[in-house]
Design goal:
Helix content: 25-40%
Strand content: 15-25%
Structural class: alpha+beta
Number of helices: 23
Bound molecules: S-adenosylmethionine, zinc ion
């Protein structure tokens, strides 16, 4: 007994949601408490997945039943010695076993959302979804999935680190018989395991240290047709363009620098997953893509279709980012040409921009390709938000995830990237109009505008850049600025007369729904010294002070790390500072930066 008590002294109990884990007080196994946002959001999306999968299956069964009834009316009930009622079952299996294209052909009179999703075997019984947590560490996430998401099948947890697997085994026992009957752990390299289990998992979760790039190729193969891949990337410095070449080597895309960098990070990750999927005649459909705290997390469904992958170039774009002003332009990689009732794919016609920016006369940096199709499915977002609201007590990070889902639900889904109102005011060196006035001017000019979950000052709009700059020209006419050097980008922009007379009077839709309802949209940081953590097993030294905070460092150096230890990025470098409330409160509304020909418009 004394021995057990002695052993327990080395551990502390962490509770999150309905799971409890025993955590060693040394830095032996990864645990980052602020990732509760990530785990809660994943649970919310998993619940939606379970519900949608059931709906889709029922829709298919109904469809099958209806067509069977039609056949029954026109044919005798016993065909070729088969009882018709048993043949539905067989026929359904055949549909999917013959390949997804055939499945799609056979159900082509169904609504689009339904036809693009049903690829699992259409048997009467829908098996509970099988989940793989490829990089599990303490097993906390797997345990939460198993305990909290109704209707899941087994959850398989993997890790290639012995201490993590030991800890995971211990935690499975610690969570009782139900958890033990559902969660299984293996000591293995996740890449090998995923390659050995093609299309076996309805859900695959990747939550690596830093970049997921080395796991993507095997992960896209392990997901069942219609299944869900959930993937985190915490290497924000790489994805945001601190070192573009590294990003290219990991993800196959060149980042450009702009205020939109965190959304661009999401779109680079999506483009990379799609590219891996395409190698196996598969493609993705994003359902939710979020930038939270210090990382990006995407939720995508994976399907197989040799014909659909021809559309991939239509979902990808290069970016031209002006080095002088905030203007950026997208160049899609492909296009379709319709001829005699048939649609052909062709390369896009470019370039989308002249050599010099038509707004300020400077040159462009070229980035991408990024995913330029929608990054969320509005129906999934709305269902997930409603579901979360209906079970508030079951989400420890309720406030955070509802604020993110609310802002996501308000985004213009077909407008890639965004600009910052403070930045454009900075470029022309004026005091910024209020967000409501600016939104009104855009709406009054006949264009759409929305906020973005990524940045409280970010603005998404389908207004072309000459309209945006015309609005700023009109604003400056009424709010004159000091004389500036003539060759500055802002001076060049202001030297042209506006073609449009901006109307700043308040438009009805100028407040976002969240603002109107006073829903808090951007929450303060979760705790002091929050962010990525040091990798498990790594010795904590004073150089980690910026990651963990001085208190934790003192504790660690004295051999008593508590919850500040646990996980980190591949490089242990802090991610670029996320833009939260700080942006709104601390940024001066007028000029913040100056730009030269080779300096990008803004830093991540
Ligand atoms: C960031 S932690 C995972 C955290 C966990 N998902 C959570 O929510 O608490 C990453 C884990 O991946 C494991 N790992 C790294 N490379 C791996 C590989 N090739 N195969 C399996 N596990 C790996 C590490 O040992 C570490 O425990
Ligand atoms: Zn420009």
């Amino acid at each position: 007994m004394a021995e057990v008590e002695d052993k327990l002294k080395d551990y502390e109990i962490k509770r999150e949601g309905e799971a409890e884990i025993l955590l060693k007080k040394s830095n032996a196994v990864f645990f980052n408490p602020v990732q509760v946002h990530n785990r809660d959001m994943s649970i919310a999306v998993l619940r939606t997945f379970v519900a949608k999968r059931k709906e889709e299956h029922e829709a298919l069964l109904n469809k099958r039943n209806k067509s069977h009834q039609k056949n029954k009316q026109s044919e005798p009930s016993i065909q070729n010695g088969h009882d018709a009622s048993t043949s539905i079952h067989d026929e359904m299996n055949v549909v999917c076993e013959n390949g997804p294209n055939q499945a799609e052909d056979e159900i082509d009179d169904m609504p689009k959302e339904v036809t693009k999703t049903p690829s699992w075997k259409v048997t009467r019984e829908l098996k509970p979804p099988l989940v793989l947590e490829a990089l599990a560490a303490s097993g906390l996430r797997s345990l939460r999935y198993a305990r909290e998401v109704d209707g899941l099948g087994k959850v398989i947890a993997l890790d290639n680190d012995k201490s993590s697997v030991e800890s995971c085994k211990q935690n499975i026992k610690f969570n009782g018989a139900f958890a033990a009957s559902k969660v299984e752990v293996h000591l293995t390299d996740a890449r090998v395991y995923m390659l050995m289990h093609p299309k076996e998992f309805d859900v695959v979760d990747l939550d690596p240290y830093g970049s997921p790039s080395i796991f993507l190729d095997s992960a896209v193969q392990a997901v069942a047709d219609g299944g869900l891949l959930m993937c985190t990337a915490t290497d924000m410095a790489v994805l945001c363009g601190t070192n573009g070449e590294v990003c290219y080597s990991k993800y196959g895309s060149y980042p450009t620098k702009g205020k939109y960098c965190h959304e661009m990070a999401l779109r680079i990750l999506l483009a990379s997953i799609e590219s891996h999927a395409n190698r196996y005649k598969r493609y993705i459909v994003p359902v939710l893509s979020v930038f939270m705290d210090f990382y990006v997390r995407v939720f995508v469904r994976v399907f197989t279709s040799a014909s659909e992958i021809k559309n991939t170039p239509l979902k990808l774009s290069y970016i031209y980012q002006c080095v002088g002003c905030d203007s950026f332009h997208l160049q899609c990689l492909g296009r379709t040409v319709s001829k005699n009732n048939s649609v052909k794919h062709a390369p896009a016609i470019g370039p989308a921009v002249p050599q010099e920016c038509s707004d300020c006369g400077k040159k462009f940096n070229v980035g991408g390709p990024i995913w330029s199709a929608p990054i969320h499915d509005q129906d999934w977002v709305v269902s997930t938000l409603a579901d979360v609201k209906s079970m508030k007590d079951r989400y420890p990070a309720y406030n955070k995830i509802t604020s993110v889902l609310t802002t996501v639900s308000e985004e213009l889904h077909d407008i890639p990237l965004f600009f910052s109102l403070h930045n454009i005011a900075g470029t022309v060196k004026c005091t910024s109009p209020s967000l409501v006035m600016f939104r009104s001017a855009v709406l009054n000019a006949g264009y759409q505008i929305s906020s973005t979950h990524v940045n409280p000052l970010g603005v998404k709009s389908d207004a072309p850049w000459d309209v945006i700059w015309d609005i700023m020209r009109c604003w400056v006419k009424n709010h004159p600025i000091k004389e500036q050097a003539r060759d500055l980008p802002g001076s060049v922009i202001l030297s042209k007369p506006p073609k449009l007379e901006a109307n700043f009077s308040r438009a009805v839709a100028a407040l976002s729904k969240a603002q109107a309802k006073k829903v808090q949209r951007f929450l303060p940081n979760p705790e002091r010294h929050w962010g990525p953590k040091v990798r498990a097993g790594r010795k904590i030294t004073s150089k980690h002070v910026s990651l963990l905070g001085p208190e934790a460092i003192n504790g660690a150096l004295n051999g008593a790390i508590c919850q500040q230890d646990g996980n980190g990025t591949a490089s242990d470098k802090p991610a670029p500072e996320p833009e939260g409330i700080k942006d709104v409160e601390n940024e001066p509304s007028s000029k913040r930066q100056k730009i030269s020909d080779d300096e990008p418009a803004s830093e991540p």
